[in-house]
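User: My advisor asked me to double-check a structure prediction for Large ribosomal subunit protein bL35 before group meeting. I don't want to rely on an old file, so could you generate it fresh from this sequence?
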Amino acid sequence: MPKTKTNRAIAKRFKKTAKGGLKSANAFTSHRFHGKTKKQRRNLRGTSMINKTTANKYEKMF
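Assistant: Sure, here is a fresh prediction for Large ribosomal subunit protein bL35 from the sequence you gave:
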Protein backbone atom coordinates (compact mmCIF):
# COMPACT_ATOMS: atom_id res chain seq x y z
CA MET A 1 0.00 0.00 0.00
CA PRO A 2 1.51 3.37 -1.00
CA LYS A 3 2.11 6.18 1.45
CA THR A 4 -0.36 9.07 1.43
CA LYS A 5 0.93 12.36 0.09
CA THR A 6 1.24 15.33 2.43
CA ASN A 7 -1.18 18.14 1.68
CA ARG A 8 1.24 20.96 0.91
CA ALA A 9 -1.21 23.73 1.84
CA ILE A 10 -1.57 22.24 5.34
CA ALA A 11 2.20 21.67 5.68
CA LYS A 12 2.93 25.33 4.92
CA ARG A 13 0.42 26.69 7.42
CA PHE A 14 0.85 24.37 10.41
CA LYS A 15 3.76 22.91 12.35
CA LYS A 16 3.67 19.79 14.51
CA THR A 17 4.78 20.04 18.13
CA ALA A 18 6.78 17.38 19.98
CA LYS A 19 3.63 16.02 21.65
CA GLY A 20 1.79 15.85 18.33
CA GLY A 21 -0.28 19.02 18.53
CA LEU A 22 -0.54 21.60 15.77
CA LYS A 23 0.45 25.25 15.99
CA SER A 24 -0.10 28.07 13.52
CA ALA A 25 0.03 31.82 13.15
CA ASN A 26 -2.95 33.86 14.34
CA ALA A 27 -5.60 35.25 12.03
CA PHE A 28 -6.51 38.98 11.88
CA THR A 29 -2.87 40.16 11.85
CA SER A 30 -2.33 41.49 8.34
CA HIS A 31 -3.88 44.97 8.43
CA ARG A 32 -6.36 47.36 10.11
CA PHE A 33 -4.72 47.43 13.52
CA HIS A 34 -6.24 50.81 14.38
CA GLY A 35 -9.51 49.05 15.25
CA LYS A 36 -7.87 46.64 17.67
CA THR A 37 -6.78 47.30 21.23
CA LYS A 38 -3.13 47.11 22.29
CA LYS A 39 -3.94 43.96 24.25
CA GLN A 40 -5.45 42.31 21.17
CA ARG A 41 -2.44 43.22 19.06
CA ARG A 42 -0.03 41.92 21.70
CA ASN A 43 -1.89 38.63 22.03
CA LEU A 44 -2.00 38.11 18.25
CA ARG A 45 1.81 38.03 18.01
CA GLY A 46 3.56 34.72 17.60
CA THR A 47 1.79 31.40 17.22
CA SER A 48 -1.09 29.61 18.90
CA MET A 49 -2.23 26.02 19.25
CA ILE A 50 -5.05 24.60 17.13
CA ASN A 51 -7.89 23.11 19.17
CA LYS A 52 -8.06 19.31 19.25
CA THR A 53 -11.26 18.96 17.19
CA THR A 54 -9.85 20.94 14.28
CA ALA A 55 -6.40 19.38 14.67
CA ASN A 56 -7.84 15.88 14.21
CA LYS A 57 -9.19 16.91 10.81
CA TYR A 58 -5.81 18.27 9.67
CA GLU A 59 -3.81 15.35 11.12
CA LYS A 60 -5.02 13.09 8.30
CA MET A 61 -3.70 15.55 5.70
CA PHE A 62 -0.19 15.80 7.18
